[in-house]
């Protein structure tokens, strides 16, 4: 059997067969760290999901930040790079408990996007129901100046 095969004895001994949540961890839809029980001290990097759409007047960036506080999030634009950064804090109390499955992510994050040349510095951000919406207005693209040639 292959070393990474779930049927290998070494892999099977990782799981407590009496654990009612064991099938969640073995789901074919799970992979990598998410297929193993979370343990205290395990580093969990995360990056919020983002949509970027363009309409006639602006670019709209939508960031999912469920559970984050708007005061812990900043939006900056410098040299046509839009940056969203912040922190989503873990509000759970540390108790003597055995966590079977943890997918919610916490910690610091940074997402940066190079905006097109026609993006202006007219930017508005709103935060509602755990969703950050950033509206970046477009500017009219500069057309080349035609210079008449004299003889």
Strand and helix map with partners:
Layout: H1 9-12, H2 22-25, E1 50-54, E2 58-64, E3 73-78, E4 81-88, E5 107-114, E6 119-128, E7 131-138
Antiparallel strand pairs: 1-2, 2-7, 3-4, 4-5, 6-7
**CATH architecture field of the largest domain:** Sandwich
CATH class of the largest domain: Mainly Beta
Helix count?
2
- How much strand? 25-35%
Largest sheet: 4 strands, antiparallel
Q: What best-fitting shape do the alpha-carbon axes yield?
A: rod-shaped
**Uncertain parts:** 8-16, 21-43
Q: Secondary-structure element order, as H and E?
A: HHEEEEEEE
> CA-to-CA gap between the ends?
84 Å
Number of strands: 7
Radius of gyration: 24 Å
Q: What's the mean pLDDT score?
A: 76
Computed structural class: mainly beta
What is the CATH topology classification name of the largest domain? Immunoglobulin-like
Strand order of the largest sheet: 1-2-7-6
Count structural domains.
2
Work out the helicity level.
Answer: under 10%
């Amino acid at each position: 059997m292959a070393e990474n095969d779930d049927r290998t004895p070494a892999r099977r001994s990782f799981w407590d067969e009496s654990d009612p949540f064991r099938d969640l961890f073995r789901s074919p839809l799970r992979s990598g760290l998410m297929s193993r029980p979370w343990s205290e001290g395990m580093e969990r990097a995360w990056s919020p999901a983002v949509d970027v759409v363009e309409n006639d007047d602006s670019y709209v960036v939508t960031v999912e930040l469920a559970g984050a506080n708007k005061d812990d999030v900043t939006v900056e634009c410098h040299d046509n790079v839009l940056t969203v950064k912040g922190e989503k804090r873990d509000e759970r109390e540390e108790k003597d408990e055995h966590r079977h499955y943890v997918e919610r992510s916490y910690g610091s994050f940074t997402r940066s996007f190079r905006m097109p040349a026609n993006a202006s510095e007219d930017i508005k951000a709103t935060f509602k129901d755990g969703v950050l919406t950033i509206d970046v207005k477009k500017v009219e693209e500069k057309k080349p100046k035609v210079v008449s040639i004299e003889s």
